[in-house]
Amino acid sequence: MARRFALGSCRRLRGQDRLGTIRMTSAPHDISERFRLDGRVALITGAGRGIGRSVAIAFAQAGAEVWLTSRTASELETLAAEIKAAGGRAHAAPCDVTDAAAANKMVAAI
């Protein structure tokens, strides 16, 4: 019982399984002009992979200067290089955010 998700208008179809199947009712929307972060600074935790990486890329594409943090420095440096190569502004700041002293020091550096 697959679900399909995408940006845009979605509706739940009647007569489907109890969890419901979500399908697009229109083409996906490009929100880049509505969602601009020019002149803003964003601190992205967990930026090395997964959702954090995707959020960092999206924020950089929207114009934000992104500070990338996670425990794995090599992943952050790779992502920062990718963002910079695409014309964005990114900084790698390895940090274990569960360590309050380290997190405070990182935020103060920004």
Give a count of the beta strands, DSSP E runs of length 2 or more.
5
Helical segment tally?
Answer: 3
Rounded to an integer in angstroms, the radius of gyration calculated over CA atoms is: 18 Å
SSE order: EEEHEHEH
Any idea what the shape is?
globular
Structural class: alpha/beta
The portion of residues assigned to helices is: 25-40%
- Average pLDDT, all residues: 80
- What topology, given as strand order, has the largest sheet? 3-4-5
Put the structure in a nutshell.
With 110 residues, the protein is α/β, with parallel strands linked by helices.
Please explain how this structure is put together.
This protein is 32% helix and 18% strand. It is globular. The strands form two sheets. The protein has a three-stranded parallel β-sheet, with helices on one face. A two-stranded antiparallel sheet has the order 1-2. The chain starts with 9 loop residues before the first strand and ends with a helix. The protein is built from three helices and five strands, in the order βββαβαβα. The longest helix is centred in the last third of the chain and has 13 residues.
Write the layout of secondary structure elements.
Blueprint: E1 10-12, E2 22-24, E3 41-45, H1 50-61, E4 65-69, H2 73-85, E5 89-92, H3 100-109
Parallel strand pairs: 3-4, 4-5
Antiparallel strand pairs: 1-2
